[in-house]
Amino acid sequence: MKKVLVVLAFAFLGNQAFAQTNEIEMFQSIFKVEKKALLMDFLKLSEEDATAFWPVYEAFEADRQELAKKRIALIYKYAEEYETLDAEQADELAMESFKIRAAHEKLHKSYYKKVKKAVGAIRAAQCIQFERFIDNEIDNQVNSNMPLIGEFN
After folding, report:
1. pLDDT in tens, 8-48
2. With the CA atoms of 99, 135, 57 and 129 taken in that order, what torsion angle do they form, in degrees rounded to the nearest 10?
């Protein structure tokens, strides 16, 4: 799990060069491989369940990565505007973060239903539990390394 967190820290908190689309995609690819290995170990799916599960999960990952790109862009926007942040910018950032969080929750709910249909409620719940664990770790890393508005002004 620590290996994943190191990758996440670099993916979200690296220098400005990582804002480039191809580099973000590279980190997402590395993260995806590491995360999939952890999930495989956690779920211990039978061959039959794996055949049903992985295509659904791959679709989930593609959709999740699009949301991750939006979140990364929002983090960089916050960093760029931090020193001169006004009320309008703060409101725009907050509203965008609400949209991303709502879309993320909607994504989890949608794919929970799809995974449940493919491999049952227990596996679907395990998958969402795993995803939320990863999401919480990402949130913890980002929040512990991002200054609060006005903290350094």
Report:
1. 444 454 444 444 566 666 666 777 778 889 999 999 999 99
2. -120
24 contact partners, CB below 8 Å, separation of at least 6: 11, 18, 69, 72
**Domain chopping of the chain, boundaries:** 2-145
pTM above 0.85, yes or no: no
CA angle centred on 74, ends 32 and 62, rounded to 5°:
30
Cα distance between the two ends of the chain: 35
State the CB neighbour count (10 A cutoff) for residue 101: 14
Pick 4 or 94 by higher pLDDT.
94
- Token pair of 36 as six digits: 């999939």
